[in-house]
Write a structure and sequence with these properties.
Layout (H helix, E strand, L loop, with lengths): L1 H11 L3 H18 L2 H17 L3 H17 L3 H18 L4 H17 L7 H14 L4 H18 L4 H9 L1 H10 L2 H18 L1
Helix pairs in contact: 1-2, 2-3, 3-4, 3-5, 4-5, 5-6, 5-7, 7-8, 8-10
Length: 202
């Protein structure tokens, strides 16, 4: 679907309002032709984009509809995505309701270990789990971040063209995963080294 692809491109470039416009166009076309799986995918795109913009009501509407369609069509792996994203909405709305949210996230974590997703969905889903677990001070946060990084590295290794690989790793989400995965000690050493160079230069 061209509109969906263009929406993803706009989102990768940080133009979220344009991404929403394109996703809505994609949804209209897919609903017109009755493309069930495509509808679910576009609803997830809409929901997560609204979530990133802090538009929680809109995010909830699209994510709940996507999750309900997953349940109706027995698509367990996609339903798991819905649970993760809706949990992030709940965290944004009511960060004190940690017990219920953590239970949902743990279910999604276990499901993700035993269900296969399209490769492109794995790094962002693990990264979202990482953010949620981190906010809840759950020790699985580090493991989720590592899995996001490993999945991203696997995808990057399959790209033969150096320029294309660099562009892939510069996608904002991918860059955040790589940056967050760097050990804190590494950041400290880089900072100290930079300071030493400035001293020597002075």
């Amino acid at each position: 679907m061209c509109y969906d692809s263009l929406g993803c491109l706009a989102a990768d470039q940080g133009n979220l309002p344009e991404a929403l416009t394109l996703y809505h166009r994609a949804l209209a076309v897919r609903e017109e032709i009755g493309e069930k799986l495509g509808i679910i995918g576009t609803l997830f795109h809409l929901g997560t984009t609204h979530l990133e913009l802090g538009q929680l009501d809109e995010a909830t509407t699209h994510l709940e509809r996507a999750t309900q369609l997953c349940q109706a069509h027995q698509i367990g792996s996609a339903q798991m995505m819905g649970v993760v994203y809706l949990s992030l909405v709940q965290l944004a709305r009511s960060p004190q309701q940690t017990a219920d949210i953590l239970q949902q996230l743990n279910w999604a974590w276990e499901m993700l270990q035993t269900n296969e997703l399209e490769a492109e969905h794995v790094p962002p889903l693990y990264f979202d789990l990482y953010k949620a677990f981190l906010q809840l001070n759950d020790p699985k946060a580090r493991a989720a971040l590592q899995k996001a990084h490993d999945a991203l590295t696997t995808q990057a290794a399959k790209i033969q063209d150096t320029t294309m690989k660099e562009r892939f790793l510069q996608v904002p989400l991918h860059k955040r995963i790589v940056d967050r995965s760097r050990p804190k000690q590494t950041h400290r050493l880089v900072f100290l080294e930079a300071g030493r160079r400035r001293t020597l230069a002075g």
